[in-house]
Amino acid sequence: MAITPETLQLSDDAKRALLRISDNHLNALVAAWVGVWDEIGPELEAAVLELALNAKDGYVPRRDVAKSKRLAATLELATQRLEELADNIGETVGGDLAAIAREGRAAQTAMIKSQIPAAHISVVTDHTAAAPIDAMVARTLERIHKDTRPLPAAVIKSIKAELIRGIALGENPRKTGQRIVKRAEGRFNGGLTRAMMIARTEVLDVHRVGSQLSDQANTDILEGWRWHAALSARTCPSCLVNHGTMHAASEPGPIDHHQGRCARVPVAKSWAQLGFKGISEPEDAFPDAREWFDNLTEESQIQIMGRERLALLQSGSIEWQQLTTRTQNGNWRDSMTVTPLLALKA
Protein backbone atom coordinates (compact mmCIF):
# COMPACT_ATOMS: atom_id res chain seq x y z
CA MET A 1 0.00 0.00 0.00
CA ALA A 2 2.81 2.40 -0.94
CA ILE A 3 1.91 5.63 -2.68
CA THR A 4 4.80 6.38 -5.01
CA PRO A 5 6.21 9.72 -6.23
CA GLU A 6 4.67 8.84 -9.60
CA THR A 7 1.26 8.51 -7.93
CA LEU A 8 1.58 11.98 -6.41
CA GLN A 9 2.79 13.45 -9.70
CA LEU A 10 -0.20 11.99 -11.52
CA SER A 11 -2.50 13.49 -8.89
CA ASP A 12 -0.91 16.93 -9.27
CA ASP A 13 -1.03 16.71 -13.08
CA ALA A 14 -4.74 15.82 -12.99
CA LYS A 15 -5.46 18.73 -10.65
CA ARG A 16 -3.64 21.22 -12.87
CA ALA A 17 -5.48 19.99 -15.97
CA LEU A 18 -8.80 20.25 -14.17
CA LEU A 19 -8.13 23.79 -12.92
CA ARG A 20 -7.21 24.88 -16.46
CA ILE A 21 -10.62 23.74 -17.66
CA SER A 22 -12.31 25.39 -14.70
CA ASP A 23 -10.41 28.64 -15.30
CA ASN A 24 -11.77 28.70 -18.85
CA HIS A 25 -15.29 28.41 -17.43
CA LEU A 26 -14.66 31.25 -15.00
CA ASN A 27 -13.21 33.47 -17.72
CA ALA A 28 -16.34 32.89 -19.80
CA LEU A 29 -18.57 33.79 -16.85
CA VAL A 30 -16.60 36.98 -16.16
CA ALA A 31 -16.81 38.04 -19.81
CA ALA A 32 -20.58 37.48 -19.85
CA TRP A 33 -21.08 39.38 -16.60
CA VAL A 34 -18.95 42.32 -17.79
CA GLY A 35 -20.92 42.45 -21.02
CA VAL A 36 -24.20 42.73 -19.16
CA TRP A 37 -22.91 45.45 -16.83
CA ASP A 38 -21.62 47.40 -19.86
CA GLU A 39 -25.23 47.38 -21.06
CA ILE A 40 -27.06 48.26 -17.84
CA GLY A 41 -24.41 50.39 -16.08
CA PRO A 42 -24.93 53.49 -18.26
CA GLU A 43 -28.70 53.09 -18.00
CA LEU A 44 -28.45 52.94 -14.23
CA GLU A 45 -26.27 56.04 -14.13
CA ALA A 46 -28.73 57.89 -16.36
CA ALA A 47 -31.61 56.92 -14.05
CA VAL A 48 -29.69 58.25 -11.04
CA LEU A 49 -28.98 61.50 -12.90
CA GLU A 50 -32.66 61.87 -13.73
CA LEU A 51 -33.47 61.57 -10.05
CA ALA A 52 -30.84 64.20 -9.30
CA LEU A 53 -32.46 66.69 -11.67
CA ASN A 54 -35.63 66.48 -9.60
CA ALA A 55 -33.84 66.60 -6.25
CA LYS A 56 -34.74 69.28 -3.73
CA ASP A 57 -31.81 70.73 -1.81
CA GLY A 58 -29.66 67.83 -2.98
CA TYR A 59 -31.93 65.28 -1.36
CA VAL A 60 -33.96 62.58 -3.11
CA PRO A 61 -36.81 61.20 -1.01
CA ARG A 62 -37.01 57.45 -0.76
CA ARG A 63 -40.48 57.48 -2.33
CA ASP A 64 -39.09 59.19 -5.45
CA VAL A 65 -36.54 56.43 -5.83
CA ALA A 66 -39.34 53.88 -5.60
CA LYS A 67 -41.50 55.77 -8.16
CA SER A 68 -38.80 56.35 -10.79
CA LYS A 69 -40.01 54.73 -14.01
CA ARG A 70 -36.59 54.91 -15.62
CA LEU A 71 -34.95 53.25 -12.66
CA ALA A 72 -37.64 50.58 -12.57
CA ALA A 73 -37.14 49.90 -16.29
CA THR A 74 -33.38 49.65 -15.81
CA LEU A 75 -33.77 47.21 -12.93
CA GLU A 76 -36.24 45.17 -14.97
CA LEU A 77 -33.69 44.98 -17.80
CA ALA A 78 -31.03 43.97 -15.28
CA THR A 79 -33.31 41.23 -13.95
CA GLN A 80 -33.83 39.83 -17.45
CA ARG A 81 -30.12 39.86 -18.21
CA LEU A 82 -29.27 38.25 -14.85
CA GLU A 83 -31.78 35.48 -15.49
CA GLU A 84 -30.09 34.85 -18.83
CA LEU A 85 -26.68 34.80 -17.14
CA ALA A 86 -27.91 32.33 -14.50
CA ASP A 87 -29.36 30.05 -17.18
CA ASN A 88 -26.09 30.17 -19.12
CA ILE A 89 -23.97 28.91 -16.21
CA GLY A 90 -25.17 25.37 -16.84
CA GLU A 91 -24.44 25.76 -20.56
CA THR A 92 -20.96 27.16 -19.90
CA VAL A 93 -20.02 24.30 -17.59
CA GLY A 94 -22.31 21.51 -18.78
CA GLY A 95 -20.62 20.72 -22.06
CA ASP A 96 -17.45 19.63 -20.27
CA LEU A 97 -18.90 17.71 -17.32
CA ALA A 98 -18.93 14.24 -18.90
CA ALA A 99 -15.37 14.67 -20.18
CA ILE A 100 -14.25 15.92 -16.75
CA ALA A 101 -15.76 12.86 -15.08
CA ARG A 102 -14.01 10.57 -17.57
CA GLU A 103 -10.73 12.41 -16.96
CA GLY A 104 -11.19 11.90 -13.23
CA ARG A 105 -11.76 8.19 -13.77
CA ALA A 106 -8.75 7.88 -16.10
CA ALA A 107 -6.44 9.78 -13.75
CA GLN A 108 -7.51 7.63 -10.81
CA THR A 109 -6.92 4.45 -12.79
CA ALA A 110 -3.45 5.68 -13.73
CA MET A 111 -2.69 6.35 -10.07
CA ILE A 112 -3.76 2.81 -9.15
CA LYS A 113 -1.48 1.39 -11.86
CA SER A 114 1.43 3.45 -10.54
CA GLN A 115 1.27 1.41 -7.32
CA ILE A 116 1.22 -1.98 -9.04
CA PRO A 117 4.29 -3.79 -10.46
CA ALA A 118 4.46 -3.32 -14.22
CA ALA A 119 4.15 -7.06 -14.83
CA HIS A 120 0.84 -7.16 -12.95
CA ILE A 121 -1.06 -4.04 -14.02
CA SER A 122 -3.62 -6.26 -15.75
CA VAL A 123 -5.25 -6.62 -12.31
CA VAL A 124 -6.43 -3.00 -12.63
CA THR A 125 -9.87 -2.49 -14.18
CA ASP A 126 -9.78 0.30 -16.77
CA HIS A 127 -13.39 0.41 -17.86
CA THR A 128 -16.57 1.47 -16.11
CA ALA A 129 -20.03 1.88 -17.64
CA ALA A 130 -21.04 5.23 -19.14
CA ALA A 131 -24.45 5.23 -17.47
CA PRO A 132 -23.22 6.39 -14.03
CA ILE A 133 -21.41 9.33 -15.63
CA ASP A 134 -24.50 10.35 -17.62
CA ALA A 135 -26.66 10.21 -14.50
CA MET A 136 -24.08 12.19 -12.52
CA VAL A 137 -23.91 14.92 -15.17
CA ALA A 138 -27.70 15.22 -15.15
CA ARG A 139 -27.75 15.56 -11.35
CA THR A 140 -24.99 18.16 -11.44
CA LEU A 141 -26.77 20.29 -14.04
CA GLU A 142 -29.95 20.12 -11.98
CA ARG A 143 -28.01 21.22 -8.90
CA ILE A 144 -26.37 24.11 -10.78
CA HIS A 145 -29.77 25.26 -12.01
CA LYS A 146 -31.23 25.09 -8.49
CA ASP A 147 -28.32 27.00 -6.95
CA THR A 148 -28.24 29.74 -9.58
CA ARG A 149 -32.01 30.27 -9.83
CA PRO A 150 -32.11 32.63 -6.78
CA LEU A 151 -29.19 34.74 -8.04
CA PRO A 152 -31.10 37.36 -10.10
CA ALA A 153 -33.55 38.27 -7.33
CA ALA A 154 -30.77 38.44 -4.71
CA VAL A 155 -28.60 40.68 -6.89
CA ILE A 156 -31.43 43.06 -7.76
CA LYS A 157 -32.44 43.29 -4.11
CA SER A 158 -28.91 44.25 -3.08
CA ILE A 159 -28.63 46.83 -5.90
CA LYS A 160 -31.92 48.43 -4.84
CA ALA A 161 -30.71 48.60 -1.25
CA GLU A 162 -27.48 50.27 -2.37
CA LEU A 163 -29.34 52.82 -4.50
CA ILE A 164 -31.75 53.75 -1.73
CA ARG A 165 -28.92 54.04 0.78
CA GLY A 166 -26.85 56.20 -1.52
CA ILE A 167 -29.53 58.53 -2.83
CA ALA A 168 -31.99 58.88 0.00
CA LEU A 169 -29.76 59.49 3.02
CA GLY A 170 -29.07 63.16 2.37
CA GLU A 171 -26.13 62.71 -0.03
CA ASN A 172 -25.95 65.03 -3.04
CA PRO A 173 -26.85 62.79 -6.03
CA ARG A 174 -25.21 65.20 -8.49
CA LYS A 175 -21.82 64.71 -6.84
CA THR A 176 -22.16 61.15 -5.69
CA GLY A 177 -24.07 59.55 -8.57
CA GLN A 178 -21.04 57.80 -10.05
CA ARG A 179 -20.01 56.56 -6.62
CA ILE A 180 -23.51 55.20 -6.02
CA VAL A 181 -23.46 53.36 -9.35
CA LYS A 182 -19.98 52.03 -8.62
CA ARG A 183 -21.23 50.54 -5.36
CA ALA A 184 -24.20 49.09 -7.21
CA GLU A 185 -21.72 47.49 -9.62
CA GLY A 186 -20.07 45.86 -6.62
CA ARG A 187 -23.41 44.39 -5.62
CA PHE A 188 -23.94 43.21 -9.20
CA ASN A 189 -20.56 41.48 -9.21
CA GLY A 190 -21.44 39.78 -5.94
CA GLY A 191 -23.68 37.61 -8.11
CA LEU A 192 -20.70 36.84 -10.34
CA THR A 193 -18.66 35.75 -7.33
CA ARG A 194 -21.44 33.38 -6.30
CA ALA A 195 -21.79 32.04 -9.86
CA MET A 196 -18.06 31.38 -10.10
CA MET A 197 -18.07 29.54 -6.78
CA ILE A 198 -20.96 27.31 -7.90
CA ALA A 199 -19.32 26.56 -11.24
CA ARG A 200 -15.87 25.69 -9.86
CA THR A 201 -17.23 23.65 -6.94
CA GLU A 202 -19.45 21.51 -9.15
CA VAL A 203 -16.67 20.92 -11.68
CA LEU A 204 -14.30 19.78 -8.93
CA ASP A 205 -16.93 17.46 -7.47
CA VAL A 206 -17.71 15.91 -10.86
CA HIS A 207 -14.03 15.08 -11.29
CA ARG A 208 -14.00 13.44 -7.85
CA VAL A 209 -17.05 11.34 -8.64
CA GLY A 210 -15.32 10.16 -11.80
CA SER A 211 -12.36 9.18 -9.61
CA GLN A 212 -14.71 7.34 -7.28
CA LEU A 213 -16.03 5.26 -10.20
CA SER A 214 -12.52 3.99 -10.85
CA ASP A 215 -12.03 3.17 -7.16
CA GLN A 216 -15.31 1.27 -7.04
CA ALA A 217 -14.29 -0.76 -10.09
CA ASN A 218 -11.08 -1.76 -8.30
CA THR A 219 -12.24 -2.39 -4.73
CA ASP A 220 -10.67 -5.86 -4.78
CA ILE A 221 -7.17 -4.40 -5.04
CA LEU A 222 -7.61 -1.20 -3.01
CA GLU A 223 -7.37 -0.42 0.68
CA GLY A 224 -9.33 2.74 -0.07
CA TRP A 225 -8.34 6.32 -0.85
CA ARG A 226 -6.33 8.94 0.97
CA TRP A 227 -7.21 12.64 1.27
CA HIS A 228 -4.57 14.69 -0.57
CA ALA A 229 -4.37 18.42 0.10
CA ALA A 230 -1.97 20.81 -1.58
CA LEU A 231 0.59 21.62 1.10
CA SER A 232 0.94 25.35 0.51
CA ALA A 233 0.31 28.70 2.18
CA ARG A 234 -3.13 28.75 0.50
CA THR A 235 -4.24 25.50 2.16
CA CYS A 236 -6.71 25.99 4.99
CA PRO A 237 -6.28 24.34 8.42
CA SER A 238 -9.21 21.98 7.80
CA CYS A 239 -7.71 20.57 4.61
CA LEU A 240 -4.30 20.24 6.27
CA VAL A 241 -5.82 18.19 9.09
CA ASN A 242 -7.74 15.94 6.70
CA HIS A 243 -4.69 15.41 4.48
CA GLY A 244 -3.61 11.80 4.73
CA THR A 245 -6.82 10.45 6.27
CA MET A 246 -7.95 7.07 4.90
CA HIS A 247 -11.41 6.41 3.47
CA ALA A 248 -13.26 3.47 1.94
CA ALA A 249 -13.18 3.19 -1.85
CA SER A 250 -16.98 3.55 -1.92
CA GLU A 251 -16.95 6.78 0.11
CA PRO A 252 -17.45 10.06 -1.80
CA GLY A 253 -14.93 12.79 -1.42
CA PRO A 254 -12.88 14.60 -0.53
CA ILE A 255 -15.74 16.60 0.95
CA ASP A 256 -13.77 19.79 1.38
CA HIS A 257 -15.21 23.31 1.37
CA HIS A 258 -16.54 25.27 -1.61
CA GLN A 259 -13.92 25.52 -4.36
CA GLY A 260 -11.63 23.21 -2.37
CA ARG A 261 -8.75 21.78 -4.40
CA CYS A 262 -8.18 18.56 -2.46
CA ALA A 263 -7.97 15.25 -4.32
CA ARG A 264 -8.55 11.57 -3.60
CA VAL A 265 -5.48 9.39 -4.08
CA PRO A 266 -6.16 5.65 -4.37
CA VAL A 267 -4.25 3.34 -2.03
CA ALA A 268 -3.57 -0.16 -3.34
CA LYS A 269 -3.28 -3.14 -1.04
CA SER A 270 0.24 -4.29 -0.23
CA TRP A 271 1.98 -6.43 -2.82
CA ALA A 272 2.01 -9.32 -0.37
CA GLN A 273 -1.78 -9.02 0.05
CA LEU A 274 -2.18 -9.00 -3.73
CA GLY A 275 -0.07 -12.15 -4.03
CA PHE A 276 2.94 -10.62 -5.76
CA LYS A 277 5.76 -12.78 -4.43
CA GLY A 278 9.51 -12.19 -4.42
CA ILE A 279 9.50 -8.44 -5.13
CA SER A 280 10.19 -5.61 -2.70
CA GLU A 281 7.55 -2.92 -2.33
CA PRO A 282 8.76 0.72 -2.46
CA GLU A 283 8.53 3.06 0.53
CA ASP A 284 5.40 5.15 0.93
CA ALA A 285 6.05 8.67 -0.44
CA PHE A 286 2.90 10.33 0.86
CA PRO A 287 3.86 13.55 2.73
CA ASP A 288 2.87 14.16 6.35
CA ALA A 289 0.92 17.42 6.76
CA ARG A 290 1.72 17.96 10.43
CA GLU A 291 5.43 17.43 9.86
CA TRP A 292 5.29 19.84 6.89
CA PHE A 293 3.45 22.46 8.98
CA ASP A 294 5.79 22.15 11.96
CA ASN A 295 8.78 22.85 9.69
CA LEU A 296 7.32 26.17 8.46
CA THR A 297 8.41 29.51 9.85
CA GLU A 298 6.11 30.97 12.49
CA GLU A 299 5.14 33.72 10.05
CA SER A 300 3.96 31.11 7.53
CA GLN A 301 2.13 29.19 10.24
CA ILE A 302 0.29 32.34 11.29
CA GLN A 303 -0.62 33.02 7.67
CA ILE A 304 -2.32 29.61 7.50
CA MET A 305 -3.80 29.32 11.01
CA GLY A 306 -4.18 32.84 12.27
CA ARG A 307 -2.36 34.02 15.39
CA GLU A 308 -4.95 32.94 17.98
CA ARG A 309 -5.64 29.53 16.47
CA LEU A 310 -1.90 28.84 16.26
CA ALA A 311 -1.42 29.88 19.90
CA LEU A 312 -4.12 27.42 21.00
CA LEU A 313 -2.41 24.64 19.05
CA GLN A 314 1.08 25.43 20.32
CA SER A 315 -0.07 25.64 23.95
CA GLY A 316 -1.73 22.23 23.77
CA SER A 317 -5.18 23.77 24.43
CA ILE A 318 -6.46 22.06 21.27
CA GLU A 319 -5.42 18.99 19.28
CA TRP A 320 -4.54 19.00 15.58
CA GLN A 321 -7.72 17.08 14.69
CA GLN A 322 -9.92 19.70 16.37
CA LEU A 323 -9.10 22.21 13.63
CA THR A 324 -11.62 20.61 11.26
CA THR A 325 -15.39 20.22 11.63
CA ARG A 326 -17.97 18.44 9.52
CA THR A 327 -20.53 21.05 8.47
CA GLN A 328 -24.05 20.28 7.29
CA ASN A 329 -25.63 22.41 4.59
CA GLY A 330 -29.19 21.70 3.55
CA ASN A 331 -28.59 23.18 0.09
CA TRP A 332 -25.33 21.34 -0.57
CA ARG A 333 -23.41 18.30 0.54
CA ASP A 334 -21.72 18.03 3.92
CA SER A 335 -18.23 19.50 3.96
CA MET A 336 -15.19 19.61 6.21
CA THR A 337 -14.52 23.21 7.21
CA VAL A 338 -12.25 25.10 9.59
CA THR A 339 -13.51 24.95 13.16
CA PRO A 340 -14.51 28.48 14.25
CA LEU A 341 -12.15 30.13 16.68
CA LEU A 342 -14.93 30.65 19.26
CA ALA A 343 -15.67 26.91 19.24
CA LEU A 344 -11.98 26.13 19.74
CA LYS A 345 -11.75 28.53 22.64
CA ALA A 346 -14.80 26.95 24.25
UniProtKB/TrEMBL annotation:
Domain called Phage head morphogenesis: residue spans: 158-253
Q: Per its UniProt record, what InterPro entries does this chain match?
A: Phage_head_morphogenesis_dom
What protein name is recorded for this chain? Phage minor head protein
